[in-house]
Write a structure and sequence with these properties.
- With about 90 residues, this protein is α+β, with helices and mostly antiparallel strands.
- The chain is built from two helices and five strands.
- About 25% of the residues lie in helices and about 40% in strands.
- The chain has a five-stranded mixed β-sheet.
- α1 packs antiparallel against α2.
- The longest helix has 12 residues.
Length: about 90
Amino acid sequence: MVAKKVYISGKVQGVGFRFHAHEKAYELGVKGWVRNLKDGRVELFLVGSEQAVTQMLAWCHQGPPAAKVEKVEAQESSDKIEQTDFYIRRD
């Protein structure tokens, strides 16, 4: 299992990014969360098999149809919080 924090920049808020990320994570069996940041980026915390997280990251470079992803920053996370689902954070 791997854990990654991901920050996505561009036109990624107001385009259904969180909703579509939730659907894609469910499809891939990735756990964690997604949220909007006040600076206009979207942040994800991904936990899963290396293959599933890699596939989720590949999706993040494109995002949903209305998004215009400019930059994806991913870093290994030392957070080993047990994730049982993938959810949309509202904070």
